[in-house]
Specification:
Layout lengths: L1 H5 L7 E6 L1 H5 L8 H15 L4 E6 L7 H6 L4 H25 L4 E5 L8 E2 L2 H9 L3 E5 L9 H11 L4 E6 L4 E2 L11 E2 L1 E3 H6 L7 H9 L4 E5 L5 H6 L6 E4 L3
Parallel strand pairs: 1-2, 1-6, 2-5, 3-4, 3-5, 6-10, 9-11
Antiparallel strand pairs: 7-8, 10-11
Helix pairs in contact: 3-5, 7-9
Amino acid sequence: MAAETGRRRPVYRRIVLKLSGEALAGSQGYGLDPSVLTRVGDEVREVTALGVELAIVIGGGNIFRGMAASAGGMERATADYMGMLATIINALALQDALEKAGCQTRVLSAIEMRAVAEPYIRRRAIRHLEKGRVVIFAAGTGNPFFTTDTAGALRAVEIGADAILKATKVDGIYSADPARDASAERLARVTYIEVLNRRLGVMDTTAISLCMDNKLPIVVFDLTRPGNIARIVCGEPVGSIVTSSA
């Protein structure tokens, strides 16, 4: 794959990769799967070798889910802050994997934790990217009641990304859950309005609206297939794309 993409020019200059905490758990469903971290590290290195500036927004659902805790009776703001702390744990694990793969990285946290991460400053993040470093955004937006999907959209807009890549376990957007509905139709291209009106579950409504207002494309793809990130960066029709026009 590396030799194949090396002969092609990337179609994106700067991207944000949105990874869920569950993606890092792999098949075990909880915690961190070292094999997944290693594979993500290798794929990220492959993309940065193409000259693409890459930032990652990481979730924390493999460790703690604020919404679930809130539903169980915990105050929502407290639960959300705990979820943000979980994303910092994932960010540090991902940083370790990326550096073992040969990438220079920086973790920027929306909640100050100077012993392990830099505070999030927009200009600093952009400067790191310009120097070829992979930037990992942790702690969501730093505010309760906002998901890491919204954080991904916000950071992508703030740093001037060309697209946000949403990693999932399926090969794109479907009209219904393909695991539950055999008649679910795969949608190669959809508009922001369709995603909102049909409740396709790509991201939460705040994130979709933010992308729509700023004309930021969303590419939904299967992270479990090796090489997909580089394929998308090189313009191959991988997954599904959300834009202003279908």
